[in-house]
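Hello Y.,

Per our agreement to keep a running log of every chain we model this quarter, I'm adding this entry. I've kept the format consistent with earlier entries: sequence first, then predicted structure.
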Amino acid sequence: MSSDRSVAPPAEPRLLPIVTGAEAAILALNNEHASELSWLDANRFASLLKEAFYARRIGEADAFLIAFDERATYDSPNYLWFRRRFTRFVYVDRIVVAPPLRGRGYARRLYADLFDHARSAGHDTNVCEVNSDPHNPLSDPFHAGLGFTEVGQATIHQGSKTVRYLARTITLAHQKTSN
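Predicted structure for the entry above:
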């Protein structure tokens, strides 16, 4: 009797749009992480999805990322900070991976797809904010590893939150050189 102990490598996580049937589960995941993101009701969440440049998920609600470009009508103080300083950009408003599924590369997969999507749309800068207070210790090294660097700081929401603003340059297809 022989046993095959080989294990197939995990499949690349499939990225899916955030569609009407998936909104409730994604909203629940968002609101479980309201201190890092912000709490949303169903109407506000639906309006963000309509404005989004990019909105993708993995699984029913294993992970998701929502981003806006400079053309969005969005009143977030963080988004507006970038809009006053950058002419053209893609702003990551929220990304979260369900805690039991962290460490599987889901966030990196979502970001890689966002970078490709932004590049193909002609964007050269991705931006986001990371909480300094309350601190989000996983976010700092993750974003640094993706090439984001600090471009500013702010205290928002009547002093209840301090954030660091980060930016990352995207190499556009026509700027790539081959060796």
